[in-house]
Automatic annotation (TrEMBL), chain A:
Transmembrane segments: none annotated. It comes from Psychracetigena formicireducens. Residues 6-103 form the DRTGG domain. It holds the Pfam family DRTGG. This is DRTGG domain-containing protein. It comes from the Bacteria. Gene3D superfamilies: HprK N-terminal domain-like (3.40.1390.20).
From TrEMBL, chain B:
The lineage of its organism: Bacteria, Bacillati, Candidatus Lithacetigenota, Candidatus Psychracetigena. Keywords: CBS domain, Kinase, Repeat, Transferase. GO terms for molecular function: protein serine/threonine kinase activity. Residues 24-80, 87-143 form the CBS domain. SUPFAM superfamilies: ATPase domain of HSP90 chaperone/DNA topoisomerase II/histidine kinase (SSF55874), CBS-domain pair (SSF54631). It is an enzyme of class 2 (transferase). Its EC number is 2.7.11.1. This is Serine/threonine-protein kinase RsbT. CDD domains: CBS_pair_SF.
Length: 113, 297
């Protein structure tokens, strides 16, 4: 599933990304705790979170996540966006809740592993 | 034993060639010459600024009003006067294309506390303050000190990163830099991921619990060793700390998504060898080994 298709599904806004249509997503992981992200069994997954902090970007990079969806319309400030740009990690923001976002993506075939 | 030691940090040759954009403060209110001085006094007080540029209605730079101009105005009991009466003009400024070192030179040469930054149309886009420069340099010195050592006779490369307690703004930086260094060696992505998780969790533990510490990674052809050592409170019951979900992190740290009590168990899970040594009131040392899937040449 292409990332731009996901953006449409969840009515997302693209905050950081250069090449949305070239990013293929086949796994996703949702967590609000950094440790849960670090304990995720999946590599090259899409991270869905309601945390909007620079650490979430660093954590995603450390475990090799391919993109981040920030849910519940949380504000993303310049520090997060600059860091994501530097590390080349796309960030998408949506007003949908964590539950709804995961539900929609699961419904469309995305799994954790 | 021959040893090459190399200290690299953000204060390398690159940093001073950064654009002034990196250190300038944006969102400075647009002050025009017909503002009253009393409004300037309030603006400076509330925003804690010691000087603001004065522009025309289109934002072109006309002058600057500093705390010393304001003092003269207050001495004259003239707070109703317009800014145009007290502003300093003409004013030195920086073009956006100027570098950090040029800004430093200008400010030091003329003893300016602040310099407006303008675009090619002479419109103000920000201000470089001495304190914004200072903060940037201090941060660069503090957070990214990396010491790289190579011991060719033993085939070992090591990197050491300084980690400061409670520095949540830069939390994860040391591990990220470590990951970048490891990426240059041809390490299997699975090993890279495991090492990254160990380093990140260990770094977070230092930031959450200790005053300061360091993160060290040693690489040879067969394994990666990660050592995280801190000066901190130590752990009174290590076996309890090793239980998943046990945490002593305060609430504000948990709100940031940290301190879930998964750190040490997660480090152990990703390590082939795991050792922890902690003394109350002294500090904690965590040692992990990741055996490489693919031997390095």
């Amino acid at each position: 599933m292409k990332l731009n298709y996901i953006v449409n599904l969840i009515k997302g806004r693209i905050c950081v990304c250069q090449h949305l249509e070239s990013i293929e997503i086949d796994k996703a992981w949702a967590a609000d705790l950094m440790s849960d992200v670090l304990a995720s069994p999946t590599e090259e997954a899409l991270l869905i979170t309601s945390l909007a902090t620079p650490q979430i970007v660093r954590t995603a990079e450390m475990v090799g996540m391919v993109g981040i969806i920030i849910v519940s319309g949380k504000k993303t400030d310049d520090t997060i966006l600059n860091l994501a740009e530097e590390l080349d990690i796309p960030i998408v923001s949506t007003d949908l809740s964590l539950f709804e976002t995961c539900g929609i993506l699961y419904d469309h075939g995305l799994r954790s592993n | 034993m021959t040893m090459d030691s190399e200290v690299t940090n953000k204060l390398g040759p690159d940093i001073l060639s950064y654009s002034v954009e990196k250190v300038m403060v944006r969102n400075i209110p647009q002050v025009t010459p017909y503002w009253q001085m009393r409004h300037i006094k309030e603006l400076m007080r509330i925003r804690r600024l010691d000087g603001v540029p004065v522009t025309d209605d289109e934002g072109h730079l006309l002058g600057i009003i500093s705390i010393s101009d304001l003092i003269i105005c207050i001495e004259n009991k003239d707070l109703e006067a317009p800014v145009s009466k007290y502003m300093t003009t003409p004013v030195k400024c920086l073009i956006l294309s100027k570098t950090l070192i040029e800004a430093l030179r200008e400010m030091n040469r003329f003893k300016y506390g602040r310099l407006p930054v303008v675009d090619e149309e002479f419109k103000v886009i920000g201000v470089v303050y001495w304190w914004s420069l200072f903060a940037f340099l201090q941060e660069a010195l503090d957070t990214s000190m990396v010491v790289k050592k190579t011991i060719p006779s033993e085939g070992v490369i090591s990197y050491t990163y300084q980690v400061l307690g409670r520095d949540f703004v830069h939390a994860g930086n040391a591990s990220l830099q470590m990951r970048k260094s490891l990426q240059q060696l041809s390490i299997d992505p699975k090993d890279l991921r495991r090492t990254g998780i160990i380093a990140y969790e260990a770094e977070m533990n230092i930031i959450i619990h200790a005053d300061k510490g360091f993160l060290q990674v040693k690489i040879n052809s067969e394994k990666i060793e990660v050592t995280a050592e801190d000066k901190g409170p130590g752990i009174s019951d290590v076996s309890l700390a090793m239980q998943e979900g046990f945490t002593t992190a305060p609430d504000y740290i948990r709100e940031m998504g940290f301190g879930a009590g998964m750190g040490l168990p997660n480090i152990k899970r990703n390590s082939d060898i795991f050792q922890i040594d902690s003394r109350v009131g002294v500090g904690t040392k965590v040692y992990s080994v990741v055996n490489l899937i693919r031997r390095l040449k």
